[in-house]
Specification:
Membrane-bound Lytic Murein Transglycosylase D, Chain A; two-stranded antiparallel ribbon; 3 helices; about 50% helix; about 10% strand; rod-shaped
Length: about 110
C-alpha cells in the first residue's frame, strides 16, 4: 500500500501580505526622507570658513606666511596644511605676486 501525501498549493504572497510589506516599506522610506537631511545639515554648516586673498611678496614662503597666521600654542604645520587645502596646492612653492587664500583674520 502506497501512502500519498496531499500538498495544498497556495500562493506565497497574499494580497494582505503584500499590502503590509508595501506599507512597511513606505513608512521606512518616509522616515529616511525626514531624518536624512537633518543628519547632514549640521556637518556642512559648521565647515564654512571666511577667507581673504593675500598677495605673496618677494622672499616670502608658505612657512613664513603660515607662521604669521598661526596663533600662540598652535602648530605651524597645521596652518600650512590648511593653506595647502584651501588653495588646492600640490606642494609648498609660491611665487612673488601670486595670490592665495588665507583664513580671514578676526576684526
Amino acid at each position: 500500500m502506497t501512502v500519498r501525501r496531499v500538498v495544498s498549493v497556495r500562493p506565497l504572497h497574499s494580497a494582505v501580505g503584500r499590502a503590509r510589506r508595501v506599507t512597511f516599506v513606505l513608512v521606512v522610506l518616509a522616515l529616511i526622507a525626514l531624518l536624512a537631511p537633518r543628519a547632514f545639515a549640521g556637518s556642512e554648516a559648521t565647515d564654512v570658513m571666511a577667507f581673504d586673498t593675500y598677495t605673496v611678496a618677494q622672499g616670502e614662503s608658505l612657512w613664513s606666511i603660515a607662521a604669521a597666521l598661526t596663533g600662540p600654542g598652535e602648530d605651524v604645520h597645521d596652518t600650512i596644511s590648511q593653506l595647502q587645502t584651501l588653495n588646492a596646492m600640490g606642494d609648498s612653492s609660491l611665487r612673488a605676486g601670486e595670490q592665495i587664500y588665507i583664513p580671514a583674520l578676526e576684526r
